[in-house]
Hints:
Elements: H1 6-9, H2 23-40, H3 45-54, H4 71-77, H5 80-86, E1 87-90, H6 139-145, H7 148-156, E2 167-170
Antiparallel strand pairs: 1-2
Amino acid sequence: MKWIKWEKLTVRKEDGGLNFRNLLGFNLAMLGKQGWKFISHPNAMVSRFFKAKYFRTMVFLNSNTGHSPSFIWRSIYCSWGLIKDGLRWQIGDGSRINMWQHQWLKGINNNSIGDAPHLSISQLNVKDLVVPNTRAWDINFTTALVPQQATDKIMKILLLEEMEDDSRIWRHTKDGCYSVKS
Length: 182
């Protein structure tokens, strides 16, 4: 019998493998589903339970394993990095999204603009790029502050008429909801 490396077995059939699931990755993705629930459904019973026990004064993304964590919490917490890397902000009113630090752009430098060129503008939010009392981008202000590649991406973002709160979405799906497959 000839043995084959597990990495070869998990490769897609079209690429010469046998399309077996990577069990570690699949398990992590399943645990990520629970971590996503903490973010997307904070009032669900299970979210409130874990929040009260492990991240009482913060949100899941700012949590840590804590002192003497349960096996379940340690397992869910293993998905923390996966969840954090897959999130981006969806613009509502733009008041909670720091335009430099937070991930909110599609397909550019890990979805963020990068570091602010001057300390004086490092705390600007996305709402500062919008013309006051309208739902239109301030083209002149944006062009003066932001690199051209990012400006092009910003101008393609449609701002909805109804002002909503800024929210976190999963960047690997079209509908913005976490899925194990993605």
